[in-house]
Amino acid sequence: MRTYSFFILSAVMLALLSSCSGKGGKSVPKGLDSKLSYSPEKNLVSVIPLERKVFNRQLVSNGKLSAVSRASLSFRVDGVISKINYKNGDIVPSGAVIARIDDSSERLSLESARIALDKARLDLQDVLVGQGYAVSDSASVPAGVMSMAKTRSGYSEACNRFESASADLAKTVLRAPFRGRVADIKTKPYDKAPSDVFCTLIDDSEFDVDFKALESECVFVEAGLPVKVSAFGASGSCADGRIVSVNPTVDENGQVAVKAGIAGGGDFLDGMNVRVIVSKSVNALLVVPKSAVVIRDNMDVLFRYSQGRSEWVYVNLLMSNAEEYAVEANSDRGAVLEAGDSVIVSGNLNLADGSEVVLKK
User: Fold this and answer.
1) pTM of the predicted model, to two decimals?
2) Strands 91-92, 180-183: parallel, antiparallel or unpaired by DSSP?
3) 84 with 99: CB under 8 angstroms?
4) Are the beta carbons of 124 and 147 closer than 8 angstroms?
5) Which residue, 245, 248, 320, is CA-closest to 277?
6) Per-residue pLDDT tens over the stretch 206-235
7) CATH number of 47-53+284-359
8) Domain residue ranges of the chain, discontinuous segments joined by +
9) First-residue to last-residue Cα distance in the chain
10) Which of 1, 48, 54 minimizes the C-alpha distance to 304?
11) Distance CA 148, CA 125 (A)
């Protein structure tokens, strides 16, 4: 029985070996040939020559817009609003009537004052005639006599009342002191005129931009530097301007107040929050794209290409803007960096010192 079982097992093994054998009696398991031909993945990198050039240093901050000319307009007399000629958002020319208060009582007062003035003028003529002066030659009347005649006839008082009534009538009209855009109208016709502000007039042809700079950056910020102001959002407006003033004090938060000026237009609105970028050109710095700098050992490094291998170079970041760094070799780590070196700018995320690299075609 044992001999028979051994014979069966031997036959099965021979059959399996026969099925696995190919021509020539040799066999390679499926997939083994691909593994034997595997080669390590190449580190493909891009390089640029390191140059000394002008670096556009940038300060990025958040700011707020305010119209250069802005006025809160109010009626100077009480009353009921009879007409509103503009709505919020409308642009009005200088001197335009924005709204009126019912002026019927003021017009009656002005008419009464005009009648009283006419009567006083006749009384003045009677007084002058009584003093022996011809009415047609009032210029020859001595100043003292004329003053006495105006007082006795009531002419001076009548003139004052007429001027006061005219001023009261003018107060029922709200006029634009300059060209601007109307805002904050909340009252409707036939409502009582508000005792405080009826509307706001904004000249949005120019804006002040107020923003902050850190105490450490105040030596960089100065009047006259160009700024770029953009509204938040992908489709926001963008405008160029210049710094107007830098407040020479540091607040409790270690910040300095800065004011810039830009032209209006686009989507800019009074009180809008914006992003501010201040630019200043600095000459003769080693400049690399931000992609060239990576972190190793919790320090900033870049890789230099040399004869098919990467060389690890510690650097100090002197300045930065949206796209580039100004760098120098970290001398404390014994690093050396010179213009003309080939700096790896892509494919460097997983590199180490001495890694084999291949330049991208």
Assistant:
1) 0.62
2) antiparallel
3) yes
4) no
5) 320
6) 999 999 999 888 888 999 999 999 988 756
7) 2.40.420.20
8) 47-53+284-359
9) 73
10) 48
11) 12
